[in-house]
Amino acid sequence: MNDDIVSQAVWGWRKKGEASASASEDIGKRRRHAAIEFCVMLAVASLLRFVFKKPTLSLFVASMATAVLVGGFCMPSLYYGIKRFGSMLAHRLGLAVTWLLLVPFFYIFFTITRIIFVMLGKDAMCRELDPSAKSYWIAHAGSPEPEQYRKQY
Q1: Structure-derived torsion over alpha carbons of residues 100, 102, 107, 110, reported in degrees to the nearest 10
Q2: Burial of 32 (C-beta count, 10 Å sphere; 0-12/13-18/19+)
Q3: What are phi and psi of 14, to 5 degrees?
Q4: Is 100 helix (H, G, I), strand (E, B) or coil?
Q5: What angle do CA 106, 110, 112 make, to 5 degrees?
């Protein structure tokens, strides 16, 4: 069997330099994305202005929405620059949330839970030492019937 025939039928990733969509489709996709992002950002700006009473922040979001719309329709470099900045900002915020919130929460929660379990004398993993035991293997109840695999829910 020829690898080239299989890879072409599945996905032609080996062909370099070929665009998957024409330039007009790319422009249409960029404009459509920019219009959708503009509408979402404008809705967020309205929410900030009228519900949360934050006029300065809503003005900033509305101006960013306008920049996205103008960039998406007229200035692709501006649009893609805003997209790159947003991706970089999201990546950094994700790292900050991971290290500044989730790591301390993990250690605080599991340390306190472990201390409570020790005080109550519970061991959910059954880790007590039995020197007379030949093995710590837990015998399984047996294999279910084949019908069990067909009804997983």
Answers
A1: 160
A2: exposed
A3: -80, -15
A4: helix
A5: 120
**Spatial separation of the C-alpha atoms in residues 54 and 51, rounded to whole Å:** 8
CA–CA distance, 128 with 34 (Å, rounded to integer): 61
Each residue's pLDDT, cut to its tens digit, for the chain (153 residues) gives 555 565 556 665 556 555 555 677 789 999 999 999 999 999 999 999 999 999 999 999 999 999 999 999 999 999 999 999 999 999 999 999 999 999 999 999 999 999 999 999 888 887 788 889 888 888 877 777 777 777 766
Q: Which residue has the tokens 């999201």?
A: 90
Six token digits for residue 91: 């990546």
Other residues' Cβ atoms within 10 Å of the Cβ of residue 72: 25
Residue 46 amino acid letter: S
From its phi and psi, is residue 138 left (phi > 0), alpha (psi between -120 and 50) or beta?
beta
* DSSP sequence for 24-69: HHHHHHHHHHHHHHHHHHHHHHHHHHHTS--HHHHHHHHHHHHHHH
